Amino acid sequence: MLRLKNIDKTFCAGTPNEKILFTDFNLEIKEGEFVGVVGSNGSGKTTTLNIISGDIDIDNGEVILDDKNITKLPNYKRAKEIARVFQNPSMGTCSSMTIFENLSLADNKLKSYNLTKGLNIKAKDKYRTLLEQLGMGLENRLNDVVGTLSGGQRQAISIIMSTLIKPKLLLLDEHTAALDPKSSDTVMELTQKIVSEQKITTLMVTHNLRHAVQYGTRTVMMHDGNIILDVSGEKKANTTTDDYLKIFNEISIECGN
Amino acid sequence: MLNIIIGILEQGFIFAIMALGIYISYKILDFPDLSVDGTFPLGAAVSTALILKGVNPWICLVVAALSGALAGCLTGFFHVKLKIKDLLSGILTMTALYSINYRIAGSPNIFMMNEKTIFNLFTVPDSIRPYFPLIIIIVISLVAKILLDMYLKTKSGFLLKSAGDNAGLVVTLGENPGKIKIIGLAIGNGLVALAGAVNCQRVMQFDVSSGVGTLVMGLAAVIIGTSLFARAKWVKVTTSVVIGMILYKTCISLAISSGLRASDMNLVITTLFVITLVATEYSKRRKPHAQTKKY
User: Fewer CB atoms inside 10 Å of the end CB: C or N, chain A?
Assistant: First the structure.
């Protein structure tokens, strides 16, 4: 459903800081896959997400979503079909608005933001049920300003907001990295639940190897702009955290770290 | 004494409309929009020119507001499409408007004598005549405030609020944040031009340089109002902006009656501004857990 074809990307081209990241990079994601992407810093994980979402331009190549070439489409137009949750919990919500206002705002995606009432009163019970599932007590705080919530709570709301209208593709950009271990696991459980219930094709970048092993249907390991490991299905089930760590350490030794 | 109070209230409510506009650009959109220094006299110029042609003064107000909105779009165009920095975009529009306002009015100063304005369109009984302009002004600014409150509760208003707070969120909602910014600047400058038009009909005078200091004055009112009522959740922010402007005009009036000259006002404005800012910072530090509301 998503194909990155022959992508070239060089940062700071023509300067002493020039960094060639991708040359002829290819990646294909099938309908319904939950792909975990791991790799060291600078391996191109987040850049891959940014290329898909349209936040950075590519030098050469094509981005194809459902047989449609979206290479030239600006980020906000791609966002109609591609949802994204960021590492920073404050990126996915509007901190000065209430939970109810935030959810109503997200629920209106793909429809016109016109002069009708902003709050979606009819959906209030639906929102309550969704928030109840989190077990964070947020269902009774619909009228609280999001800025007063903790990072984990905000990230949970970000995920609900990004999937209220089912996207074709969900991009998760280290979305648990800024949270404490417990919140991190809660948010990951929630992600798994929403993704599997709604059958959303998902690409998740993570630094947490355990998350990549435990969740998802396919794991991709990246290094220096290349995919060095790509396992799915039974093979993924048989690969343990230790196996990944071993490869990881080998790469690091090659780099002289 | 009563005359002074009426004068303060009239000025306060007229400039409150302007402060509401600045509240949108500065507080909601986080955009230091200097074009208001040009759109305030733009409203006055358009209104004066049309009144001299015999157009109904109420229609003059509407056209003046629309012209302000157009000028706001121009600032937005500079910033969003041509990628010019926000502060500079406003300055460019303001500078251009100086010439345009001159063109529209045809002269740097115009005094009106017996022309029809919204304040003398109807004949009113002598007993309420001294209060009549104030009543009209209060009605106009309350209508502007209520319309703005209603707008901020619509879907489009929600998007405007989130654009200032977190432009990335607007992108993830599949909407163009640049478009939302332009809409916000249009509404803000429309309100400022409306204030300029009401003011020039009240003082029966157009002055091409009447816009100097508009942004600073509006900001002072916004900051006085929002910091005074920061913890009073039941006061709408738009209400506190209106009250802020009335308080501001009161301070200025007190300063003048204590012997300062009109030309000292810019110094008074700056002093007042700095005191409010420092006081807000100080009270924030004293109560670290206090939450400031933005809207």
Answer: C
- Section A227-238 average pLDDT: 84
Query: How far apart (Å, rounded) are the C-alpha atoms in residues A154 and B101?
Result: 48
Residue B190 CA to residue B184 CA, distance in Å, equals 10
Domain boundaries, chain A: 2-95+166-255
pLDDT of residue B271 exceeding 70: yes
In a domain, B254, yes or no: no
Number of domains chain B is built from: 1
Express each pLDDT in A140-157 by its tens digit. 999 999 999 998 899 999
- Which residue in B170, B177, B294 is closest to A96 by CB distance? B294
ipTM: 0.88
| pLDDT for the residue A255 | 60
Q: Check if A106 contacts B (Cβ < 8 Å).
A: yes
Note whether residue B293 is domain-resident. no
The whole-model pTM stands at 0.89
Residues of chain B positioned with their CB less than 8 A from the CB of A90: 166
Angstroms from B26 CA to nearest CA on chain A: 15
Nearest-CB residue to B169 (from A80, A94, A117): A94
Report, at the CATH architecture level, how domain A2-95+166-255 is classified: 3-Layer(aba) Sandwich (3.40)
Within an 8 Å CB–CB cutoff, is residue A109 touching chain B? yes
Cα B95 to Cα A241, B101, B196, B253, distances in angstroms: 64, 10, 17, 30
